[in-house]
């Protein structure tokens, strides 16, 4: 072998070794509609891509591998033959950093983003061993999937048959604020017995009225809405599999060609070809999980919405019990060893309240994970975060009270504001308080585009979710 060839072979071997040492994390970003998934992914990716060790004030400060000067560079990995659309990272950053900064558009379908994080080995045992082999640098491959939160709420449906699901949905539709929103749909299915012969045109009308009811619920802040594909159908828009809705049980056994039998068949089809396929394909390999919870919006909306959101989250988390077949083990299953529960939009409350927001989320999790399944299966941490921080902390000059400086929708400029306080008890007292938190708009700050997004707690979240793979 001539020397250049010999060198090339050695280089190739080292490359292979590097592959061997390359680590991969599938990060699951879980959360109901509007919880902040898309903004979190955008912020995380942008801040890693823009990482600059020389920057005086980096949004990655407190990310250990960055603070230790070991983060070399993160790059987007484009796979040419991917069958999943690319996460619209460029559009999301453009929205947040354009002339008139605004929040990214709502998520209509599934997408994926892959990052290679190149870093220098540290002084850990593995790091030292790798360096000894001549591998001073290593790559962590990070895969993240984004999807509409509406689809997540379908998960509990896998554990119910059409009859049980219908009964639960009908009960729900007759309660509280939902009753008025469901009136037209309830009248429609009331007119026609479930035992009547199936008619696809009628099915389409009933499904449309049911979808309208779900839409109105979503607008009112309610989140326990199934099936999620009726709200966000993506590629299934107009597909016959979506032409069904809950039905009252027929008197006696359902005949084979009845409405009830036809809807039950579609329900089974939906379970298998929509829900199961989605989770199997995108969640099976997840090893780390961040569950985003928008506690503040739920507090704002009042007891009914707060309870509804808690119930939706609890149902999703509990339904992991159905992972007997191994499909739904993505939250606490074998693979997942760390779960971070993050209360999002922490920039909506004053600094002193962020710890109370964490406490509230902690107590909420305690109720959601009643059987301690998650805690027993994985490491769990709770944090209050803001992926894109839109407010500054200030104090009033007269009283010394903490306030926020930020711009709400419609405000011409930054405004000093005194937001509501976080309740110290759980469940939150509803009679004595009216919670009031505002939504803030992203700022027009050119540094956001070039240096990354200011945030609260994202580097700490990364330490927990990725840190042990960056040694
Ligand atoms: N102030 C602030 N608002 C946020 C933040 N993250 C999300 N939001 C708000 O929450 C909305 C929903 O966020 P998004 O990421 O689209 O939620 P998704 O449905 O879970 O993907 C955004 O449009 C913002 O109004 C944040 O870090 N700070
Ligand atoms: Mg989204």
TrEMBL record:
Any one Pfam family here would be DUF463
| Highest rank taxon of the organism | Bacteria
Q: What is this protein called?
A: YcjX family protein
Origin organism of this chain? Vineibacter terrae
| Source organism phylogeny | Bacteria, Pseudomonadati, Pseudomonadota, Alphaproteobacteria, Hyphomicrobiales
């Amino acid at each position: 072998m001539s020397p250049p060839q010999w060198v090339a072979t050695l280089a190739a071997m080292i490359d292979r070794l590097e592959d061997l040492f390359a680590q991969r994390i599938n990060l699951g970003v879980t959360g109901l509609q509007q919880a902040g998934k898309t903004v979190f992914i955008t912020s995380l990716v942008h801040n890693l891509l823009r990482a600059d060790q020389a920057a005086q004030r980096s949004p990655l400060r407190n990310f250990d591998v960055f603070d230790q000067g070991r983060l070399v560079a993160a790059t987007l990995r484009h796979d040419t033959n991917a069958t999943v659309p690319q996460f619209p990272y460029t559009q999301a950053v453009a929205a947040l950093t354009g002339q008139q900064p605004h929040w990214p558009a709502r998520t209509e379908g599934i997408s994926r983003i892959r990052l290679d994080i190149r870093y220098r080995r540290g002084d850990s045992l593995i790091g030292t061993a790798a360096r000894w082999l001549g591998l001073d640098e290593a790559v962590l491959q990070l895969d993240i999937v984004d999807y509409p939160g509406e689809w997540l709420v379908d998960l509990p449906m896998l554990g119910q048959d059409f009859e049980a699901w219908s009964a639960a949905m009908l009960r729900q539709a007759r309660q509280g604020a939902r009753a008025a929103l469901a009136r037209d749909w309830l009248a429609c299915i009331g007119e026609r017995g479930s035992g009547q012969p199936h008619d696809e045109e009628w099915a389409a009308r009933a499904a449309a009225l049911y979808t309208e009811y779900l839409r109105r619920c979503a607008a009112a802040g309610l989140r326990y809405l199934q099936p999620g594909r009726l709200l966000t159908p993506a590629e299934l828009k107009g597909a016959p599999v979506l032409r069904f809705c809950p039905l009252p049980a027929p008197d006696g056994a359902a005949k084979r060609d009845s409405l009830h039998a036809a809807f039950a068949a579609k329900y089974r089809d939906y379970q298998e070809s929509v829900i199961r396929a989605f989770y199997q394909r995108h969640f099976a390999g997840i090893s780390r999980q961040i569950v985003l919870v928008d506690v503040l919006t739920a507090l704002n909306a009042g007891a009914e919405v707060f309870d509804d959101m808690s119930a939706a989250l609890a149902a999703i988390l509990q339904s992991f019990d159905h992972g007997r077949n191994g499909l739904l083990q993505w939250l606490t299953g074998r693979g997942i060893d760390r779960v971070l529960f993050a209360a999002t939009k922490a920039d909506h409350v004053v600094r002193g309240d962020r710890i109370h927001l964490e406490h509230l989320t902690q107590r909420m999790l305690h109720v959601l994970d009643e059987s301690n399944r998650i805690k027993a299966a994985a490491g769990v941490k709770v944090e209050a975060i803001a992926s894109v921080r839109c407010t500054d902390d200030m104090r009033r000059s007269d009283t010394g009270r903490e306030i926020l400086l930020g711009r709400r929708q419609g405000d011409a400029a930054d405004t000093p504001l005194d937001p509501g306080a976080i309740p110290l008890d759980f469940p939150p007292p509803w009679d004595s308080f009216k919670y009031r938190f505002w939504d803030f708009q992203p700022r027009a700050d050119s540094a956001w585009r070039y240096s990354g997004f200011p945030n609260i707690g994202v580097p700490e979240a990364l330490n927990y979710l990725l840190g042990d793979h960056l040694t």
